[in-house]
Structures are given as structure tokens and as C-alpha cells.
Amino acid sequence: MRKTLLAILLLASVGLLNAFDLDGRIGMGLGWSPGGTNMGSLLFLPVTDIAVTRIGLGPNLAVEPIFQFTFDSGDSFDYLLFKLSALGNFLLKGHAKTNLYAKAGLGLVMDKYGSGDMEIGFSLPFGFGLEHFISDHFSLNLAALSGFSFSSASSQMEVKLGNDKPFAFYLLWYY
Fold first, then answer.
1. Residue 42: DSSP 8-state
2. 2-174 maps to which CATH number?
3. How far apart are CA 15 and CA 165, in angstroms?
4. pTM to 2 decimal places
């Protein structure tokens, strides 16, 4: 166990040497996550359903508030989903233009199916993220998240491993 922990710490410290530094930088962007239902299902086009902000707190740590929304008005039901998450991005491996992050955080989830009651729950997302800088002000991101979701429906708690939309693609603009 100690050898594994030491190897992980050594790998992380070597990876920090060449990272693209986000210290004091703020980025904002929009993105898309595949799967599930979305507003573009009639046109077979992906739609923007993620709003992201990334705040660099240091050379190897960033905070990422994410707002995710989905609305589908079909023939038989209406579906509404809101997710608000705050993720911590911990730099694992950095390069001149590409950073690999471990992500973990806390989220609030609100679902509504048809004329049913609004379900409210929370999530503990975790996963990985890859950020590639196209220029000093723009980056492309891929995030792969899973985690635990706790939902209250009819006074019952449900625990699920994995999210409905495990991948997210987004473009960030840094100023």
C-alpha cells in the first residue's frame, strides 16, 4: 500500500513540471454531453447542454462549477433535468499544451418526468478530464465522469453508480 501511494505521488510530482499553468486564470465555456434525451433529438443534432466555469487556484488545482440542463418535450412525456456540480480538478500529468486531471466533487440534481413530482437528489461525481489548449485563450476539453447519485423518490433513497451522461465535450475561453 505504501509503495503504491509513493508511486502515485512521484508520478504526480513529475507530471507537474511541464503543465500549462492555470494559476489565477478564469475560463468559461459551453459544451455537449451525448446520451439521454435532449432538445436536438428531433433534428438529430447535438445541442449545448453544459455551461462550465474553471477557476485556477494554483499551478495544479482548479475549481470547476458546471451547470447541466436537458429538456425534452416528446409525444408521451416531458423530461426536465438540472444538475449543478462543483468539481475540483487535480493535475495528474501536464505538458506544454495538454493537461490530464483527476476530478471529484459534489452536485445537486433535479429531475422531472411528465406530470410527476420533481425528484431532488445529490451526486458525488468523480473521474478524469483532458484539456488541450488550442491557443493561450481557448481549450478543448473531454471529461469522463462517473460517481454515486442519491435520489429521493417517494421517500425512498436510491444509490446508482454512474451517471446518465458520462462524457462531456466543451470549449473554454480563458481571459
1. T
2. 2.40.160.20
3. 29
4. 0.71
